């Protein structure tokens, strides 16, 4: 039974990412890029290593994604005023405009599709179970999309 649950969770993640990537293609974004923008949204800046930990990606993966986003003018990366070796990342106005368009034009339909057949209570229970599974597997961040989010590190304060 546990193997079936693991496989079902993996398939749900793959299907969700695929549907998200399809919805984002018209905006020139991927789901990984959206995760970054949503994490950074509403923050003045975030240390790149904090972003890496929150998203659960390697340094090389994050650097590659950020390089493309910097080239497109979606994020800015600068040296930390507190530690020149550290990098701080922030969203640009162009990224904020894309996020606003996504919210207005795509979010409602996507969330309705995702939640189809579930009550609000069931979704809340599912979310709790997913947090527990992540914790069981060693994830301690829970820092993305508001739950357990910490304030930006001081090293990135302007």
TrEMBL record:
This is HTH marR-type domain-containing protein. One of its GO terms (molecular function) is DNA binding. The keyword Transcription regulation applies. Signal peptide: none annotated. Pfam families: MarR_2. Residues 1-135 form the HTH marR-type domain. Keywords: DNA-binding, Transcription, Transcription regulation. It comes from uncultured Thermomicrobiales bacterium. The lineage of its organism: Bacteria, Pseudomonadati, Thermomicrobiota, Thermomicrobia, Thermomicrobiales. InterPro entries: HTH_MarR-typ, WH-like_DNA-bd_sf, WH_DNA-bd_sf.
């Amino acid at each position: 039974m546990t193997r079936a649950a693991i496989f079902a969770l993996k398939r749900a993640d793959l299907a969700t990412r695929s549907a998200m990537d399809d919805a984002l293609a018209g905006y020139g974004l991927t789901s990984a890029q959206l995760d970054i923008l949503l994490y950074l949204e509403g923050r003045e800046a975030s240390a790149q290593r904090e972003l890496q930990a929150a998203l659960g990606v390697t340094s090389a993966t994050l650097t590659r994604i950020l390089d493309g986003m910097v080239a497109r003018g979606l994020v800015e990366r600068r040296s930390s005023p507190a530690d020149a070796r550290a990098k701080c990342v922030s969203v640009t106005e162009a990224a904020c405009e894309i996020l606003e368009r996504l919210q207005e034009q795509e979010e409602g339909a996507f969330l309705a599709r995702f939640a189809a057949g579930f009550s609000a209570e069931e979704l809340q229970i599912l979310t709790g179970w997913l947090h527990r599974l992540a914790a069981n597997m060693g994830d301690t961040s829970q820092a993305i999309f508001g739950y357990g989010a910490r304030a930006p590190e001081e090293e990135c304060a302007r």
